[in-house]
Amino acid sequence: MMTTHTDVLPTEGGLGNTPLLAVDNLHVEFSTRQGVVKAVNGVSYDLYQGETLAVLGESGSGKSVTAQAIMGILDMPPARIPHGEIRFRGTDMLKLTDEARSQIRGQRIAMIFQDALSALNPVFTVGWQIGEMFRVHRGMSKRDAQKKAIELMDRVRIPAAKQRVHDYPHQFSGGMRQRIMIAMSIALDPEVLIADEPTTALDVTVQAQIMELLAELQRESNMGLILITHDLGVVADVADKIAVMYGGRIVEKALVHDVYRTPAHPYSKGLLDSIPRVDLKGQELYAIKGLPPNLLAMPPGCAFNPRCPYRQDNCVSEAPPLYEISHTRSSACHYWREVLDGSHE
Amino acid sequence: MGRYVIRRLLQAIPVLLGATFLIFAVVFALPGDPIGALAGDKRMDPAFAAVLREQYHLNDPLLLQYWHYISGVFQGDFGTTFSKVPVSELMAGKFQVTINLALTALVLEAVIGIGLGLWAALRQGKATDTAILAVTLLLISVPVLVTGFVLQLLLGVQLKKSTGIDFFPVAGAFDGWRSYLLPGFVLAGVSIAYLTRLTRTSLVETLRADYIRTAIAKGMPRRRVIGRHALRNALIPLITYLGADLGALMGGAIITETIFNLNGIGQQLYQSVYLREQPVVVGIVTILVLVYIVANLIVDLLYAVLDPRIRYE
Ligand SMILES: Nc1ncnc2c1ncn2[C@@H]1O[C@H](COP(=O)(O)OP(=O)(O)OP(=O)(O)O)[C@@H](O)[C@H]1O
Ligand SMILES: [Mg+2]
């Protein structure tokens, strides 16, 4: 079930061919005492209705900053967006007034954070925090909002929701707290949900339950889901497509199954080789050599070149563009053919 | 909760005993002879002095004297002065003045300190912020004696002269709560400065918290993010500070009372120490300690109301 809100933002053409959300050549930089940190350097990705996009990459690669730019919750300054567009149903949100932007934030594009304990306010009950969405954005009475909060807690399968609505965040387990975070984010049926490492703080069995819940909610409401993670393991079952980030850039975009079978960028290949696999049990785990790039002093050419087993001379002299390999797939590697071939053996 | 309050009150007993004994021993050890001091410059008849000494248990060992005293206190009897005035009677009116003064100071401190602190935090790094910090630095570094007399002269005497209206009475407690405004402000001065800084830090820290980012991501208006989500959290440490400060304000009232000629506990304490009136000194200190303990208890209970993570079993 989807509401299209055409009264606020016009949709261009049919829903089928306009992405719900399009990040286009986004740049984000932070001015710090040490200099300008270029955290995001020309990221583009599309998200269609009902689709799940997994954004992958190691710590510091710019996944969260991109998400915060989409939400419009970056602190500006120190952050700055020198180039790029973020189109929501065809309209560039970066050009909207604060007022128009705040009509989207939380209501039509919502976000879940990594650590639900610190992301929930410790001094208000969970019912108050979920109900706030209805009271503030929908003008509901306290009592109706509370009822809605209980419904939502039921929907994310928190046992005894009716009693627990009066509890405070610290009284819940980690998994339950993340469910509350999820309940709060889907309160107003958002069209896009961004989950920033929603399971990193949880133990493995709980991780699987939360992922399942997210996938189920997404199917029910047909929203677009952006799933940020650095765990390739959780991605395979839920995501439709993948964007791999490195040093503030996208290095590979592909359908999930393609990446798993045949990665087309040395970095994605390294990531895949470093997940434990049952069939290779006993063998030493592969780890990508070297350190993540320093955003204050990026290496010339391809940012990955100092760590790349496929490196040639031109990798140091020219930065690779994002080569389009097929309609659904692209790689920012001069030698993507070799990488693909190497993956095939 | 009820059980917690009882436990806390029981815990207060050893603190109270310890503090009063300490002060009792110190006053006892003061050089000079209280009986001799009674007679002023003249010599007292030794036989009469011996009778008085016996009557006031002055020949008993220290611990026994203390026992006589403290068992009386627990029955509401603070003893009498050497001049036969019941200590409780002597203290009652004085405490009223000091409590009025300290409470006025506390209210001024809370309103001005928190107000300025919030203002500075929301204008972080801007001119207003810098100006507020500069004023607090001034308040902290100038002695109370100076602020006291300067404000008395400017806001009391001069303002009355130029407008003909007595906005801030400068001496005595004859104009109801208005008599306490100026002395209250002078007394609170340094505390206002500290509270301003504490408030600023607390709000700035809180605004950096993850749950504030969540509130913004929920699309909450800025006013609500600050006024509800941040403020409720930022207030918690301030309440502690205010509670602890009530005791300090009462104890520190002596200079202010002198400047503004308020006949409160500070002046009485000074006189009694001078006259070696043990029962009065110890009585005043006992009550100050009690006020301190109760204020702390109230702070701890308020804490539980403000911060649900704290539970009292
Ligand atoms: N407020 C800020 N000021 C300066 N630099 C920042 C700020 N916020 C983020 N950065 C920098 O931007 C870069 C990208 O950060 P980001 O949080 O997007 O990484 P990430 O991919 O989400 O990593 P993780 O997996 O650890 O969450 C980091 O190097 C970080 O240091
Ligand atoms: Mg992150």
TrEMBL record, chain A:
GO molecular function, one term: ATP binding
GO cellular component annotations of the record: plasma membrane
Xref: Gene3D superfamilies: P-loop containing nucleotide triphosphate hydrolases (3.40.50.300)
SUPFAM superfamilies noted in UniProt: P-loop containing nucleoside triphosphate hydrolases
Transport keyword on record: yes
Assigned keywords, A-Z: ATP-binding, Cell membrane, Membrane, Nucleotide-binding, Transport
All copies of domain ABC transporter, residue ranges: 21-272
Main location: membrane
The keyword Membrane appears for this protein: yes
Similarity section: Belongs to the ABC transporter superfamily.
Protein name: Oligopeptide transport system ATP-binding protein
UniProtKB/TrEMBL annotation, chain B:
Keyword Cell membrane belongs to the record: yes
Keywords of this entry: Cell membrane, Membrane, Transmembrane, Transmembrane helix, Transport
One CC-aspect GO term: plasma membrane
Residue ranges of the TM segments: 12-30, 97-119, 131-157, 177-195, 238-260, 280-306
GO biological process: transmembrane transport
PROSITE patterns found in the cross-reference section: ABC_TM1 (PS50928)
Compartment(s) where it occurs, according to its Swiss-Prot or TrEMBL record: Cell membrane
Predominant localisation class: membrane
Domain ABC transmembrane type-1 as annotated: residue spans: 95-303
Topology of this chain in the membrane: Multi-pass membrane protein
Family: Belongs to the binding-protein-dependent transport system permease family.
Protein name: Peptide/nickel transport system permease protein/oligopeptide transport system permease protein
Annotated organism of origin: Sinosporangium album
